[in-house]
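Chain A, query sequence.
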Amino acid sequence: MLGGALFAGWEVLQRRLAAEALTGRTCLELVPTAHFEAEPEQIWRQGLQLVRAAGSGPWWVPRRARSLRVRLRADGEQPLSYRIEAPVGAHALLSTTSYGARVEVRQVPPISDKGPDHAARAVFTLRGRPGSRLRDVPLDPDPLQPLIDAVAGLRAELGETAEVCVDLSPAPRWHLAAYRWQTVRKAREAARREARWLTREPVGAGGFPQSLGRLLDPAEWRGSARGQMVMSPQPRRLDPDKVLGKLSTGHGLVRVQVLVRCASDEGDRAQARLARVAAAMDVWAGVSRLTQAGLTLGPWRFGPDRRPWRGRFDEQWSTGLMRPARGGWAHIEELAGFLKPATATARLPLLETDMPTYSVGAELVPQGWYRGPGGRERLLATHEDDTLFEIQSGKAGWGKTTRAEVQAVASAHNNRGLAFVDPHGDSFTAVARYLAHDDIIDRVALVDLTVRGDGDMLACWNPLDMSGGQPAHEVTAAVVDGFASTLGWSDVSAPRALTILTKAVEALVAVNARAVTAQTPQAQATLFQIPGLLTNPVLRNLVVAQLPAEAKEWWARSFPDLPRDALHIVLNPLERLGANPVVRAFLGCPVSGYDIRRAMDEGQVLWICPPGTGPTNALLVSLLVHDFLRAGLSRRDLPEKRRRPFRFYLDEMISLDQGESDVLAQITEQLRKFGCRLHGMTQLMHRLTPATRAALMQNASCMSTTAGSVEAISQITGQWGDAIAPRDVAGLARWWHYASFTVEGKRIGPLLVRGPALDEVFDNLAEPSKVKALRRAAHRNAGARPLTERTTEALDQDKALHAFLTSQTTPTRTTPAIGDTLGEAYA
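Chain A, predicted structure.
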């Protein structure tokens, strides 16, 4: 009676002391970097550090309260967070880890979930022969991968969580010694039974009937069989180290209990999640294994989810009290997977908190359909302000342009401006029904150079137009650079051509500035007046008369000394441009309907369809792209907050990146500060110029590739390290991409996504009945007129310029006009 009372009092005291010790705990979260990898030695050192931390505390803390908890938690917002909960006195010890700078240690508050509506509980214990070990799980792939997969697909909106708590406690010496003695004693008893059995006559001697008779004869069991000599059994000798296994040494040995709780607002989902976690524990199954405690009888299971065991579980769960099952001993090396956060070799699921889901009208850029672990498919998106530059690579017809069209339509509905350059001319027809909305129609402008009929509508652009008030030197530089980059001119290869073109453009720009000042912009010169300036002495004298003295000096002194054939290199590309009647009409009119700077500032949705991708058309496209750069840089005259974001979508970038041009690289490197974004699409990355390719790779917020040749694919996959091999991409089906993204400064992926289609994303926004109205508005906004009118105006521009110059100057000649001899030779 007295002994029982003393024992009860002692137990009450121990419980109170344990409760007091477990009240104050320090909680630390370990956050690994994307490239974190753990070595076995690092895990061993971390494990010893955790064991020491578990044993810290005042002298009066009971053994059951000297514990440390590793909590692995998934809640639909984090794939698998890694926490350590330990006595307060261990905070300084745990504030650093053996993993170095690749794991950040953060102080976090204790988890305070509201009580779950439905919860499934489980206790996992170590089962197997005494001293046997769990399976030695390799570190690559990550041992936590089955657990990560088991808790993937949790839905935060349903209040779903899944937690695995691994409680560790230092091994008490006296307890370990007693357990060793029991293990050796049981092994010896088993050896004696085996020896006694082996000394008996084999059961099969004399045939089955005789053997069965002897087995049923009580005398046989008393050792009094006929003529049988009784011999003392000789048990085999036991190797204590072999019998004890991991129990032979106490260094690195701990007591362990594993508690699991899955919660959900729907009870069936919690039980299903627990079943998946239980299956994940099989990765450690060897001679010993982690098995779920409890008893199953038909459809019923008796365990931590039922009384009276439920109260015991909840106490351990809330306090960290150690009550491991009999034989719950483990070595640090066996628990290596639990002693570190997820490493770089783990495939973490993509959560909605990692990357948002696209919805029409949100400030998001749709990227692709992604199928999550639970089979749910959603349209991934990046934030508008995060998506700066993007590069798409892959074979033709595999969805690059379609994906860009979806992004452009989304930006248009987000009230963002954009320019879509499509050499094929089909994309505007595809997107028109989704842009035909009242709040977008007035912003759409179409510059279509694929027209053929005389009545087809054509916009115009004069690269020398000064009616916008742009600085003369910027216009001159953009035009000259456009020619030089496409034709391969440089100060080494063609210095004379660069000088002649620069002086000619400079002179006509000065004349245009005078025409605008005189309020006669219709008299402005175009590119096609350059041949007349160089070869017609009358026109040249009229132009030079409008120039300042410094500019006149070159025409008076240097131009007459040029050899006869010096002008061919400048005149030939202009003649080729003028040979195309559509290009002649587009570039030959004085006042531009197309103005990229105005499009940027007003948030226009601009569609540009060049006539093709040949050498002559490449010159036109080069002029357009260099004008992009000029207009973007000119936005420095606006305060930063007034620079409306503007996107360039460039299809078939190879045709836009000709010669030794680095204009696309400059756009990528310089225009971010001025609100400009670039999306490029190409079939072969290695056909881009090295400068363009390097700039895109360096600054790309998003990179994607469809199927293609291994050589072409490797340009993109090389940026992803070993995550995706080229052979993984080479066989992708149509519309599928591997892509990486930037979300809030963090790189996501590479992920396998299916490219979105216009009809599945914007089907409810289609307005086919308003497409004709959209086209009319798009032509009107671009200043388009019938092709015949544009052609007539372009052909009459020489006369209009001559009339304006004549009205401004009445030359009186007492000496030969500038360059008459050279001009007469060309005339």
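Residues 812-817, 821-827 have pLDDT under 50 and may be disordered. The chain has 32 helices and 24 strands.
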